[in-house]
Design goal:
The complex is a heterodimer of chains A (265) and B (277). Chain A is an alpha/beta fold and 265 residues long. In chain A, 34% of the residues lie in helices and 24% in strands. Chain A has a 6-stranded mixed sheet, sandwiched between helices. Chain A has a 4-stranded antiparallel sheet with strand order 2-1-4-5, with helices on one face. In chain A, helix 3 crosses helix 4. The radius of gyration of chain A is 19 Å and the shape is globular. Chain B is mainly α and 277 residues long. In chain B, helix 6 crosses helix 8, helix 7 packs across helix 8 and helix 8 crosses helix 10. Chain B is flat, with a radius of gyration of 27 Å. Classes of the chains: A alpha/beta (265), B mainly alpha (277). The interface between A and B is medium-sized, with 26 and 20 residues.
């Protein structure tokens, strides 16, 4: 596995001021592997994902993608990011551009592709996410699910080797989640290397090759879905899963001080 | 039921809430109408008309007031606006820069040029610059000087507007652009600034209206007959004819431009509101 590691994270630390969010993360994701990162809010899972394409600057440690060290100060970060697609919770489509322009502008400005080629790639990717008929629409006129599929198509148009998903369905109405997950499942089947921060346990169980459970800035458990979700070996994982799968049955709890969101100490 | 109970209670003394409200509104109408009538009756309309509304003098002003004076006003305003927009953009980007001295310089610039009356800037450009750099000509003659003076003032205001517009674009837009491989500068130009301008179009148009009026300060630069704009032209004619009608006509010419512009601004604001939803 080490030889074909597409994403490699070594001894990663990240602090915001005094708040240490990531406390030493080591993680490898092989080519074509789909890894879901789960964990309670404030566990550092989104920060970890954002460190992988350096949207957050790690405080300490190394990040490699496709063999290139992103944490090397001399690296051409814009060049490396072209190989890493990123999908955000809030979609972040460019609202002043049509759907097609959202897909073509980055290709033309960043990859210097010609007009015709960019349009062709855009059309192909819109078809893959099933939104060909929305090509001329503006993002504001689309549903959240459609916007997120356009955002995925925009990333795919850059021809990435790796795709990062930061809670891609968390901002969606429940009935729109399925369309986005279907597109992600299609990508996984095509062999895309994917790192997905998500709360969708069904997706994690059925699509992921591995599930990583994070809590308090460390990786608590890392293994195949059947083990981490189906038969977790750590109490913290079990606790998290029980609250997630049946939120109505949870008890009122004391805030835990090592969680990011609280200011309890 | 609850409200029958209330109605069954003995009425308190004095007026009900509704009566009080209509009484207060009626009083406001009376005061307003009274003030208008008092003003209309007490003003000496005949003398006013004599001094400000001489039809013959007004007729004499056409077409020069439009083809020369209004044209020059528009030219001064647009050249000042264009220069101010470019400079304002530079100052705004300096203000947002990660380089400390740039931020510092931009901050000082904005404070100085926003704090000084435009009139002083015009005098400074007209007097101090030729003194300090003898022999240097500001390119474009009077037009260049006006563009410079108006632009220097406008840039300070517009820089703050542009900065606010850039900061109003959600952070996720820059992150999305960077994650697609845009460099910071290219993301700014292709993604952030186009969105910022849609946000600040109404306040920028307002700035245009302000500049339109400030262009009257040109007279402190000393202009030739052909370079006169509305205010100077109106004043000159007023002293020639010993009558103030030209001032009134010049004023109407300003309104001819500023009222439609104001209308456009309100339309754009309404549309922008709609787009946010």
């Amino acid at each position: 596995m080490t030889g074909t590691a597409e994403i490699q994270v070594r001894g990663l630390h990240k602090s915001f001021g005094d708040n240490e969010v990531l406390k030493g993360i080591d993680l490898e994701i092989g080519r074509g592997e789909v890894v879901c990162v789960i964990g309670p809010s404030g566990s550092g899972k989104s920060t970890l994902l954002r460190c992988v394409n350096l949207l957050e600057e790690p405080t300490k440690g190394q990040v490699f993608v496709g063999g290139t060290e992103l944490t090397d100060p001399d690296v051409d970060i814009d060049a490396v990011r072209r190989r890493i697609g990123m999908v955000f919770q809030q979609f972040n489509l460019f609202p002043h551009l049509t759907v097609t322009e959202n897909l073509t502008l980055p290709q033309r400005r960043v990859l210097r592709r010609g007009k015709a080629e960019a349009a062709k790639v855009a059309a192909e990717n819109l078809e893959r996410v099933g939104l060909t008929e929305k090509a001329g629409a503006y993002p504001a006129s689309l549903s959240g699910g459609q916007q997120q599929r356009v955002a995925i198509a925009r990333s795919l148009s850059m021809g990435p080797e790796v795709m990062l998903f930061d809670e891609p369905t968390s901002a969606l109405d429940p009935e729109l989640v399925g369309d986005v997950l279907a597109v992600m499942r299609m990508l996984a089947n095509e062999g895309m290397t994917m790192m997905v921060v998500t709360h969708e346990m069904t997706f994690a169980r059925e699509v992921a090759d591995r599930v990583v459970f994070m809590d308090g800035g460390v990786i608590v458990e890392d293994g195949v879905p059947a083990q981490v979700i189906g038969n977790p070996s750590h109490e913290r994982t079990r606790h998290f899963l029980s609250r997630l799968l049946d939120p109505a049955m949870a008890d009122v709890e004391e805030e835990i001080s090592d969680q990011n969101g609280g200011d309890s100490d | 039921m609850a409200d029958t109970d209330v109605r069954l209670q003995p009425r308190k003394k004095g007026l009900t809430r509704r009566q009080k409200r209509s009484l207060s509104r009626g009083a406001q109408y009376v005061v307003f109408v009274g003030a208008v009538i008092a003003f209309a009756v007490s003003a000496d309309w005949d003398r006013l008309k004599n001094q400000f509304a001489q039809w013959d003098i007004a007729k004499e002003m056409f077409p020069d007031v439009i083809t020369l004076a209004l044209k020059n006003t528009v030219l001064y305003t647009l050249s000042g606006f264009a220069f101010g927009l470019v400079l304002g953009m530079v100052i705004a980007l300096m203000r947002l820069s990660s380089v400390g001295p740039y931020r510092w310089f931009a901050g000082v610039y904005i404070e100085i040029f926003r704090g000084l009356p435009a009139l002083l800037i015009f005098i400074f450009i007209g007097v101090a610059v030729p003194l300090a750099f003898p022999g240097t000509e500001i390119p474009g003659g009077t037009y260049g000087k006006v563009a410079l003076a108006l632009g220097l003032v406008a840039a300070a205001y517009m820089a703050e507007t542009i900065r606010a517009g850039i900061q109003a674009v959600p952070k996720g837009q820059m992150e999305a652009a960077r994650s697609l491989g845009f460099s910071p500068a290219r993301a700014m130009v292709s993604i952030i600034i186009p969105q910022a301008f849609r946000i600040i179009l109404p306040p920028l148009t307002n700035e245009l209206v302000l500049l339109f009026k400030d262009s009257s300060l040109v007279l402190f630069l000393g202009v030739t007959l052909e370079e006169r704009e509305l205010s100077k032209y109106g004043r000159d004619l007023a002293s020639q004819t010993a009558n103030s009608t030209p001032i009134l006509v010049a004023g109407l010419c300003y309104l001819l431009v500023t009222i439609p512009l104001g209308f456009v601004v309100r339309r754009m604001e309404a549309k922008a509101q709609e787009a946010v939803r």
